[in-house]
């Protein structure tokens, strides 16, 4: 059976890995390379295949020195662990770079996926890996401008794990690292029916202030909260795609200005327009209240299944090697 290595590098990158795994399950043997200690990613991809841990050189808000020291360690670990594959898929982030390079050195074809949130400039990993990749996967036609050698497949999104429902609550999340400024602004609003996922921000602050809210730092079964939400408020990350494309939920993107290494406000505006959802950058409580009122009934657009097209491409081009 075709043996496919996939970097599931956390956050939205893990989302791409899962979306591809769902379409390849039972048709290929899957091996996932995940960041050390990333329990959420392990829980997401472990059901589809083997997981192998490799150090992630740098987090989204860490300095260049962290990358300089971490990348050689990741290369050494990848040298030991990346082998016996028919094809390797990079889902982005600096975590994907080392195993992709080792795969290329070993003569393993590399597929390089650009993020769904990149429009104004390419991500560093996709830009550099495009030089060695057999294929660079684009998710939007607009991305041809930033990676001309790429091929458009359409957006990669996960299949739903739960039935879509409207249980009346507003879901607020900002991924693993959290977004305290956003959470504090929401706290100032008179909202009772809220589910808040805080990530690395202390959840006890909000539990004490709003006893009626459901507040937690982490839930490996997070999709159930998206499936039941009336409205989703999130930063520019994986949840935007899950909310809009997987579950068809009204969604507000509020980018985190502290994430300097990721896609920015202009990318968020373009993505919101592409998906038919709302964009908001003013963190005042008044502005967020207006955005909530405006977006509650906005239905996201639908797109072709880019994950299925990519899975079919992999099976047809690498399955007989």
What does this structure look like?
- There is one protein chain.
- Helices cover about 35% and strands about 15% of the residues.
- It has 12 helices and 13 strands.
- The strands form 2 sheets. The protein has a 7-stranded parallel sheet, with helices on both faces.
- Helix 1 packs across helix 9 (about 240-245) and helix 1 crosses helix 12.
- The longest helix has 18 residues, at about 65-80.
- The termini are close together.
For the record, what is the CATH homologous superfamily label of the largest domain? Glycogen Phosphorylase B
What is the share of helical residues? 25-40%
Please indicate the count of domains.
2
CATH class label of the largest domain: Alpha Beta
Please report the total strand number as a whole number: 13
List the main descriptive attributes of the protein structure presented here:
single chain, 321 residues, alpha/beta, Rossmann fold, 2 domains, 12 helices, 37% helix
